[in-house]
Design brief:
GO molecular function: DNA binding
CATH topology of the largest domain: Beta-Lactamase
Organism: Spirosoma telluris
Largest sheet: 8 strands, antiparallel
Number of helices: 9
Structural class: alpha+beta
CATH superfamily of the largest domain: PAS domain
CATH class of the largest domain: Alpha Beta
GO biological process, one term: regulation of DNA-templated transcription
Order of helices and strands: HEEHEEHHHEEEEEEHHHH
Protein name: HTH luxR-type domain-containing protein
Radius of gyration: 19 Å
Number of domains: 2
InterPro entries: Sig_transdc_resp-reg_C-effctor (IPR016032), Tscrpt_reg_LuxR_C (IPR000792), WH-like_DNA-bd_sf (IPR036388)
Helix content: 40-55%
Strand order of the largest sheet: 4-3-7-6-5-8-9-10
Length: about 270
């Protein structure tokens, strides 16, 4: 895979962070506590922001967690194709596109999210970032995709339960191995985004640790800096064999197609 494609995907994710900050500023004008005062004007201005990152392999939107419906979407028609039925039926139809081995994803992921959110104390319930990776769909036209999504709440109620999130979904089939049939979720939060909760469907474990260990992150950071195996081993005072084993384990766990894709996924999910 051309490295320019990898870089373009990473650039899009970096741009979404800038757009998120502008959505937060926009919400300060339109929200009164957790109530959206002028929906039509907010939607019009939000659409203008979201148009900045748009493509046939990505969809961006703002999701209302009270109604469980998006209030703004950009790129959805090109991403999912034409979806028949009402707006209320849209989510159900999209979920019907899930590949058979992912049919439990909606229930399992929501159950995980509810359980972990209930455990988080009030003072830590800030700066949430959610990443989902590896969920496979077969679109209405028969094309198969594998998604990576990023969700960032920007509006909370008095108990710091988020009510609206800014979401970005990208087809990353080219980053994952074709025979990787698991998915993983990473949630970071806290004043400095210092806390992490994760879930991996291969094990079903609810973990309070990251998907990559501290040592693995050190190695991956070195790889991202273009150090070769021997240079990494010398810098970290480990053997080249240990470097290779860690690299293989990370690729297997995250489902990355190769080392370049591994670095990309880790950056997109905020692990390095």
């Amino acid at each position: 895979m051309n490295k320019d494609v990898y870089q373009a995907t990473l650039n899009n994710f970096r741009e979404t962070d800038n757009i998120y900050k502008r959505v937060v500023k926009l919400s300060e004008r339109f929200f009164e506590e957790d109530i959206l005062a002028n929906t039509s004007n907010f939607v019009r201005e939000a659409e203008g922001l979201l148009e900045r990152v748009k493509g046939t392999d990505a969809v961006m939107g703002i999701f209302n967690h009270k109604t469980w419906q998006p209030i703004v979407e950009v790129g959805a028609d090109k991403f999912w194709g034409e979806i028949p039925g009402s707006k209320e039926d849209r989510i159900k139809i999209i979920l019907s596109y899930l590949e058979k081995e992912y049919e439990n994803f909606p229930v399992d992921s929501v159950k995980w999210q509810i359980n972990v959110l209930n455990e988080i104390p009030y003072d830590q319930r800030v700066n949430f970032k959610f990443h989902h990776c590896g969920i496979r769909y077969k679109r209405g036209d028969g094309t198969r995709i594998c998604i990576f999504s990023q969700g960032m709440p920007f509006q909370y109620d008095k108990d710091r339960n988020f009510t609206y999130t800014f979401n970005y979904v990208q087809n990353i089939s080219y980053l994952l191995k074709k025979d990787f049939h698991s998915y993983w979720i990473r949630m970071s939060y806290g004043v400095k985004n210092e806390f992490v909760r994760t879930y991996h469907s291969a094990t079903g474990e609810y973990a309070s640790r990251d998907l990559l260990s501290s040592r693995e992150k050190e190695i991956l950071t070195c790889i991202a800096d273009d150090l070769d195996t021997k240079e990494i081993a010398d810098r970290l005072f480990i053997s080249p064999n240990t470097v290779g084993n860690h690299r293989s384990n990370m690729i297997e766990r995250l489902g990355a197609r190769d080392t370049t894709a591994l670095v990309q996924l880790a950056k997109m999910a905020g692990m390095i």
